[in-house]
Amino acid sequence: MSHRFTLLLAGLLTASAALAQPVSLTLDDVVSLAREQSLAGKQAATLQKTNYWTFRTFMAGFKPQLSLSGSLPSFTRSFVQVIQPDGTIVFQPVSNNNSILSLSLSQNIPLTGGSIYVQQQVQRFDNFLAKNTLYNGVPFEVGLSQPLFRFNQMKWDRQTEPLRYAESNQQYIEAMEQVALDATGFYFDLLVAQVNLQIAETNRANNDTLYKIAQHKLTLGRISRNDLLQLQLSVLNAQKDLASARQTAEVAALKLRSFVGSRDDRPLALAIPNRLNPFTVDIKLALEQAFANRSAALTFRRQQLEADRDLEKARKENGLNATLNASFGLSNRGSRPTDLYVQPQDRQFVEIQFVLPIMTWGRAKARTETALATQQLTVQIVEQNKRSMEQQIYTQVTLLDMLRQQVTLTAEADQIAQNRYQIAQDRFKLSDLSVTDLGIATQDKDRARRDAILALRDYWQVYYTIRLLTLYDFETNQKLTQSR
């Protein structure tokens, strides 16, 4: 029994040790997880799906629409007033069913803004008091409703709505690149915290060792009491720094897990992404790709179209507005449904409805001038946004080249500072270096290591920012799509 318990306990300890092993992640791993699992990525996918179906709904409006309408049954039983020839009123009982059924096929005409339809209609009237049934119907009818001298909304919608849908597709790609950029920020927040934790642990261990050596030196008279107290203070500061660094690392790890949507509580071991692929970003190509791929470029075009649309709408709605309604068909009546198709009679209808403003007290001109001023303002705003976009891209491309050099320089400085600290530590052990000089070497070592990590963070954030601003991968020379 005790042997089984020992084996079980050993198995549990082994499993616990396996669960406690840290999860090794690279920057690419975190970016991929964020794109697949983060709430921001899922929200972007849901929004893109919504925009897709919205556009499908819009496009369906320009296809033939077949509909069946009517009222079946339509039963009435009551007393109704009937005016007699002498002007008096008599309340007569009624009990009937007046049902109607209509099948129509309609089609919008975007070029003219009108619509055409074909329909068939059947009406049945049952008089339950007289016990008879009558039928009335339209076996065939074709009709047209055509606005005259009016603003054509459909013509403009066919220009703006595809742009709006294209915007939504590019906005989805931008949203995923924004997720990558945010994930990079959380990644380096944790990486910096872990590096600070490593520095704090190393400093605490080194200070403990040096303090013990200094105690031995004090007994030999090779160090002053003041230097010993300074080292003791360094030990206490290192312990405080270690506790603070540990808490900061835990908070940063929690934020990273929360962003990427991970429920794994195992410790995270992040790799330092210090391998930079050599590639160049041509500023002219970056600008071309930005204005070809970004949703903002499509937004600029759509906003200008909408301003032109509003100006045309203001001008046309201030003048003569008319609508032509015309139809031609066949109609008949009878006591049986088949009677409707026996020698039906012609059915024609033509109507022109119009509105002509005569006195508006300047309202028409005010509307037109407002729309014209809005159009001019839109052009100015779009031009300003284009320049801001160009300046932002130019800044980021220039910054990328500078930061690539900065990463190399800070890495070299980090290596030199680490070697210098090791030499300073060895010299202190040999009583060839003061405590003050040792402290300076320690500070330089820590600063150089942090600067190297911060330079990497700045580089990778600019790298993903350029991808976001251009929607272009300069490493592979390919446009970013929804699948990449």
What's the structural blueprint in terms of helices and strands?
Layout: H1 2-20, E1 23-25, H2 27-37, H3 39-60, E2 65-71, E3 75-83, E4 89-109, E5 114-127, E6 132-148, H4 153-220, H5 225-260, E7 268-270, H6 283-293, H7 295-316, E8 321-334, E9 345-355, H8 363-429, H9 435-470, E10 472-473, E11 478-479
Parallel strand pairs: 1-7
Antiparallel strand pairs: 2-4, 3-4, 4-5, 5-6, 6-8, 8-9, 10-11
Helix pairs in contact: 2-3, 2-4, 3-4, 4-5, 4-7, 4-9, 6-7, 6-8, 7-8, 8-9
What portion of the residues fall into strands of 2 or more residues? 15-25%
CATH architecture of the largest domain: Up-down Bundle
Poorly predicted runs are 1-19
- How much helix, percentage-wise, in residues? 55-70%
Number of domains: 2
Given helix and strand content, the structural type is alpha+beta
Overall average pLDDT? 87
The CATH class of the largest domain: Mainly Alpha
Major sheet details: 7 strands, antiparallel
Query: What value does the Rg take, in angstroms?
Result: 40 Å
Under CATH, the topology of the largest domain can be stated as: Outer membrane efflux proteins (OEP)
Question: How many DSSP helices?
Answer: 9
Q: CATH superfamily of the largest domain, please? A: Outer membrane efflux proteins (OEP)
Subcellular location: Cell outer membrane
Signal peptide: 1-20
Family: Belongs to the outer membrane factor (OMF) (TC 1.B.17) family.
Keywords: Cell outer membrane, Membrane, Signal, Transmembrane, Transmembrane beta strand, Transport
